[in-house]
Amino acid sequence: MTDPAPRTPDHPVDPAFPARWSPRAFTDAGMPPADLLTVLEAARWSPSASNTQPWRFVYGLRGSTGFAAIAEGLTGGNRDWAPRAAALVVTVAQTEGRDAGGNPRAQRWAEHDTGAAGLAMALQAERLGYRAHPMGGFDPAALHRALAIPEAGHRIMAVIAIGRQGPADLLPEQHRPRETPGPRQPLAELAFEGRFGG
């Protein structure tokens, strides 16, 4: 198994954050439904503006028709490795809701909250001994159709592959060089006091 290269934070943080990364090499180990529900339960408790909880998830365990439909909607190199994962989860932001009077209302924070839920899933998966890899390489129209996700007011944000990490040689050769944790930009290039750009 590929050991994550050490990543040194600029400031002290819980080790879970720099230890988390998104491998592509998964073993053929399955995932009990209860473990996947625990991962989704963690997402349920994510921060949510006005408690709107605008995230929705469509998931499948490997071998199910749902998993096959999600895998079919992947594009590019993701099709080479993601079908080995134990589970695939589609994260959907519900971008339209209702106000107190029942009138339609844009939920402009939905994408932010759905992203937070995705991180909660990844960290919970790590606690259970799995790895999670969010992907942007998918065909939104195909997934909307195949999974009956409404087009109006729903935006597919990512597909997350979850499984037990395996050695890089499980991957097609072209993906092996990338099977290592990536570096991060210095915090000073990302966070600014008082004015954007410092």
TrEMBL record:
Transmembrane segments: none annotated. Residues 19-58, 76-164 form the Nitroreductase domain. This is Nitroreductase family protein. Keywords: Oxidoreductase. InterPro entries: Nitroreductase, Nitroreductase-like. It comes from the Bacteria. Belongs to the nitroreductase family. Pfam families: Nitroreductase. It comes from Ruixingdingia sedimenti.
